[in-house]
C-alpha cells in the first residue's frame, strides 16, 4: 500500500514545474534575441492598469497555470490503494458430529415368584393291623378237618384180600397209580380251593 504524498513533496513538485516553465521561457527569449529584427523605433505604449494585458504576455501564464493546477490535482488526488489479493479461503473442514450415545434403559427387575407353600407330608399308608384271629371259624375248620379225615380214611382203608375177580384185579393195579397222583396233585388242589374260598370271603367284606 503506497502512502499519501506529504506537503513537502507537493511543494517540491510545484517548484520543479515552475522551474521547467521558466527555463522554457528563457530559451524562447534567447531564440527571439538571436533572430535578426528590423531596427525600427517602436512607439512606447503606456499601459494602464485597467487595460487588458496583451495576448503574448498572458500566454505563458495561461500555459503555466494549468500545468501547476494539474500537478497539484494529481499530487493531491488520493492514490489508488492497492487492494491485497484475496487469500484463498480454505473450505471449511467437516465438523464431526458427536455420535449420540444410546440412552441406557433401566429395566425394573422382575419380581421373584412367591415361594410356594410347602406341601404337607402325605401320611404314610396305614397298613391294616394283622389280626391274630384265624380267618376260618372253628365250625368251618372242624368241617374241613372232618372232610379231610374222611378222605384220609378212604386212602388208608385196609386193603381187602383179592377175591380173584376182575374188579379186584383192576383195583389192585390202580391203587399205586392213584396214590402217586394224589401225592403229586393233592396239596396243590387243596391250596387252590382254599385260595378261592378266601377270595370269595374278601369280596363279600368290601
UniProtKB/TrEMBL annotation:
Q: Where is this region: Disordered?
A: 1-141
Q: Where is the composition biased (Pro residues)?
A: 81-95, 110-126
InterPro entries, per the entry: DUF2497
**Biased segments, Basic and acidic residues type:** 54-73
This protein's source sits in the domain of life called Bacteria
Name one matching Pfam family.
Answer: DUF2497
Please identify the protein, giving its name as recorded. Pole-organizing protein PopZ
Amino acid at each position: 500500500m503506497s502512502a499519501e504524498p506529504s506537503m513537502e513533496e507537493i511543494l517540491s513538485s510545484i517548484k520543479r514545474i515552475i522551474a521547467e516553465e521558466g527555463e522554457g521561457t528563457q530559451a524562447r527569449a534567447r531564440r527571439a534575441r538571436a533572430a535578426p529584427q528590423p531596427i525600427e523605433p517602436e512607439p512606447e505604449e503606456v499601459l494602464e492598469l485597467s487595460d487588458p494585458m496583451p495576448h503574448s504576455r498572458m500566454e505563458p501564464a495561461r500555459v503555466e497555470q494549468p500545468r501547476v493546477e494539474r500537478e497539484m490535482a494529481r499530487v493531491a488526488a488520493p492514490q489508488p490503494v492497492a487492494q491485497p489479493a484475496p487469500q484463498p479461503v480454505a473450505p471449511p473442514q467437516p465438523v464431526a458430529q458427536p455420535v449420540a450415545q444410546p440412552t441406557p434403559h433401566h429395566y425394573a427387575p422382575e419380581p421373584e415368584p412367591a415361594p410356594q407353600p410347602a406341601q404337607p407330608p402325605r401320611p404314610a399308608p396305614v397298613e391294616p393291623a394283622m389280626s391274630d384271629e384265624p380267618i376260618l371259624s372253628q365250625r368251618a375248620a372242624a368241617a374241613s378237618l372232618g372232610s379231610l379225615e374222611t378222605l384220609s380214611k378212604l386212602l388208608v382203608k385196609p386193603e381187602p384180600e383179592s377175591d380173584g375177580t376182575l374188579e379186584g384185579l383192576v383195583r389192585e393195579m390202580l391203587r399205586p397209580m392213584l396214590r402217586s397222583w394224589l401225592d403229586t396233585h393233592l396239596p396243590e388242589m387243596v391250596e387252590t380251593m382254599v385260595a378261592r374260598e378266601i377270595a370269595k370271603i374278601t369280596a363279600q367284606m368290601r
